[in-house]
Amino acid sequence: MTTQDSLYVLRGKHIVLGITGGIAAYKSAILLRLLIKAGAEVQVVMTPAGKQMITPATMASLSGKPVVSEFFAANTGEWHSHVDLGLWADVMIVAPATACTIGKMAAGVADNMLVTTYLSAKEHVMIAPAMDLDMWAHPSTQRNIATLRADGVEIIEPGSGELASHLVGKGRMAEPEEIAARIAAYFRRKQSMKGRHILVTAGPTFEDIDPVRFIGNYSSGKMGFAIAAECAARGAEVTLVSGPVSLATPAGVKRIDVRSAREMLEACQSVWLAADTAVMAAAVADYRPAHPADRKIKREREGDIVIELIKNPDIAAALGSAKRKGQLLMGFALETDTETANALDKMRRKNLDMIVLNSLRDPEAGFMKDTNKVSVIRADGARTDYDAKLKTEVAADIADCLEYPVD
Ligand code: CTP
C-alpha cells in the first residue's frame, strides 16, 4: 500500500494544523501537502514565532486558505473565531510543537490564536514536539507532556538524531509521513462502521474448459478491494470473497479466495448467514463449460470444437432470496445500453436494496481502470450521480451509501 492509499481515510476531513516557532516548521509544508493530497481540508493556524520559521504565504498557497494567526485580521479588522475553528476541526495537530507552546497548552495560557483554538477544540488533539534534546529532557517539559497526555492529547514522540543545533539526541520532530499516518490512524480508530459485518465479492470468476484453459473476464478486482479496504478502515468486520486477481489483501480484511462462480456462491452463502451487508462487486461468469475436460484438450483432434455452456448460479439473486430483515444487499450493474432500465430491472430480479450503475460508455468507467464513474440507485428509485473519480474515492462514496442507506 502506498502512503497515499493509506491516507484516503482523510478525505473530506477538517484538520487544523498549528505551527509554532521551531525550525522543524519547514517540514510542516510537506505535512500540509500530504494532507491536502489525501483530500483533507486544512486550516493553518500559526503562532507569531511560527511565522518567522516558514512564511504564511507558503502555507496559504498549499492549503488554499488564508493562514489564521492573529485574533483580528490585519486588513479588515475581522475577528477570527477560535470557537468556530475549534468546532470545525475533526482533529487538531500541532506540528512542530515547541516547549513554549506545550507549556502554554498544559497551563491553558491562551495568549495567541493557536492556544485559544486548542482550548476550543471539541475533537481529538495531537502534537508533534520538536526541540533540542536538553529542552525535551527537562523536567518541566516532561511534566507538561504528562499533563497534556492526561488531558487526552496524543503525543507523537520526537525521534532521535542530529538536531538543528548539531547536537545529537531526542527532540527531532517526527517525519511528515509518520504524522500524516498517525492522523489517518486516528480516523480509522474512530470506526464509524464498528459492529457491522460486510461481505464483499470482487474480481472475475474463471470457469474451466480443461486443466489449462478457462473462460474469464477482464475484471481486475480493484473496485471490490477498494470497497473492502474502505469498510475495514471504518471499523467494519469485512470478509472479501475474491476471484483470481493479483491484488494485495487490504489491512484488516479477511479474504477467501475462490476460482469459479460455484465456489464463490458457496463461500458467500456461508458468510451471508452472519453478515449484515453484502456488496456484490464481482464480475461473475454467467455461463460455464458443461463438461470441462479433465485432461488438456489436444490440437491433434479431428475437426473443430464446440463448447457447450450451461448457466451459472446467480450469487446476488441467491443472497437476495435468502435475505433476512435488516440485511442490506448492494449489487453492481455494468451496462452498455439502456443502463437505468436494466439496472432497475436487476435490482428487482435479485431483490437488491441498492445498485451501483457504471456504464461502459463512460471512458472513466470499467474494467482494469483506476477510475470509475458511478450512479447509485436505491430500491425506491432515488438516484445519486457521482463524478468520475479514483476507485478508492468511489469506494468512500459507496461506503457512505452503506452507512446511510436511506437519504
Ligand atoms: N451477479 C452475481 N452472480 C452472477 C451474475 C451476476 O452475483 N452469476 C451479480 C454481480 O456481482 C452484480 C450483479 O449481479 O452485482 C449484476 O451483474 P451483471 O453481470 O451486470 O448482471 P447479470 O445478472 O449477469 O445480467 P447481464 O449479464 O444480462 O447484464
Record the SSE blueprint.
Blueprint: H1 3-6, E1 14-19, H2 25-37, E2 41-46, H3 48-53, H4 56-63, H5 82-88, E3 91-97, H6 99-107, H7 113-120, E4 124-129, H8 133-137, H9 139-150, E5 154-155, E6 159-162, E7 168-172, H10 176-190, E8 197-202, E9 207-210, E10 213-215, H11 222-233, E11 237-242, E12 253-257, H12 261-272, E13 277-280, E14 287-289, E15 309-311, H13 315-321, E16 328-335, H14 339-349, E17 354-359, E18 371-372, E19 375-378, E20 383-385, E21 389-390, H15 391-403
The structure holds cytidine-5'-triphosphate.
Question: Nutshell version of this structure?
Answer:
The chain is α/β, with parallel strands linked by helices and 407 residues long. The protein has helices at residues 3-6, 25-37, 48-53, 56-63, 82-88, 99-107, 113-120, 133-137, 139-150, 176-190, 222-233, 261-272, 315-321, 339-349, 391-403, and strands spanning 14-19, 41-46, 91-97, 124-129, 154-155, 159-162, 168-172, 197-202, 207-210, 213-215, 237-242, 253-257, 277-280, 287-289, 309-311, 328-335, 354-359, 371-372, 375-378, 383-385, 389-390.
